[in-house]
């Protein structure tokens, strides 16, 4: 799934910040390059990717983390805020009457993904699938 890859890409991009107190320009450039790659691999379009990365980069330069917050957590909070701003807040789940269309090439995991989605709907929302 694209979002699973995005999660791994984000943690890979921001993981080195865990032990950092400050971020120099080269580290910031490397981080944004890695994050840009992760977003594009998760099928974000170029405009969205550019907007998210530029806003993260700008805010990382301008804002200091609050006391007790690591640089990694600060970057994650900024990224989360920017993703929600761009994609919008989550919509209300309506369990009945929804249809999902999964399209892909032969052997790309449509059946497996369908089974995982069915299990998720069953566990999370109690929906009979």
Give a quick summary of the entry.
The protein is mainly alpha-helical and 129 residues long. Helices cover 62% and strands 0% of the residues.
Keywords:
129 residues, Four Helix Bundle (Hemerythrin (Met), subunit A), 2 domains, elongated
Please, could you describe this protein's structure?
With 129 residues, this protein is mainly alpha-helical. It has 2 domains: 2-87, Four Helix Bundle (Hemerythrin (Met), subunit A) (Up-down Bundle), CATH 1.20.120.140; 94-129. The chain is 62% helix and 0% strand. It is built from 5 helices and no strands. Helix 1 (2-14) packs antiparallel against helix 2 (25-41) and helix 2 runs antiparallel to helix 3. The chain is elongated and about 50 Å long. The two termini are 20 Å apart.
Q: How much strand content do the residues show? A: under 5%
Total count of helical runs of at least 4 residues: 5
CATH-level-4 superfamily name of the largest domain: SRP54, nucleotide-binding domain
Shape: elongated
What count of domains describes the coordinates? 2
How many DSSP E strands?
Answer: 0
What structural class should be given to the helix and strand makeup? mainly alpha
CATH architecture of the largest domain: Up-down Bundle
Separation, N- and C-terminal Cα atoms: 20 Å
Note the topology.
Layout: H1 2-14, H2 25-41, H3 46-62, H4 71-87, H5 110-125
């Amino acid at each position: 799934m694209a979002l699973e890859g995005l999660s791994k890409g984000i943690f890979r991009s921001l993981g080195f910040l865990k032990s950092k107190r400050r971020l120099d320009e080269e580290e910031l450039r490397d981080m944004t390059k890695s994050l840009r790659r992760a977003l594009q691999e998760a099928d974000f379009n170029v405009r969205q990717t550019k907007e998210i990365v530029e806003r993260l980069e700008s805010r990382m330069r301008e804002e200091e983390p609050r006391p007790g917050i690591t640089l990694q957590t600060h970057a994650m909070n900024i990224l989360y805020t920017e993703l929600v701003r761009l994609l919008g807040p989550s919509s209300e789940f309506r369990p009945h009457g929804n249809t999902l269309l999964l399209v892909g090439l032969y052997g790309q995991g449509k059946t497996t993904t369908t089974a995982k989605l069915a299990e998720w709907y069953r566990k999370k929302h109690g929906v009979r699938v």
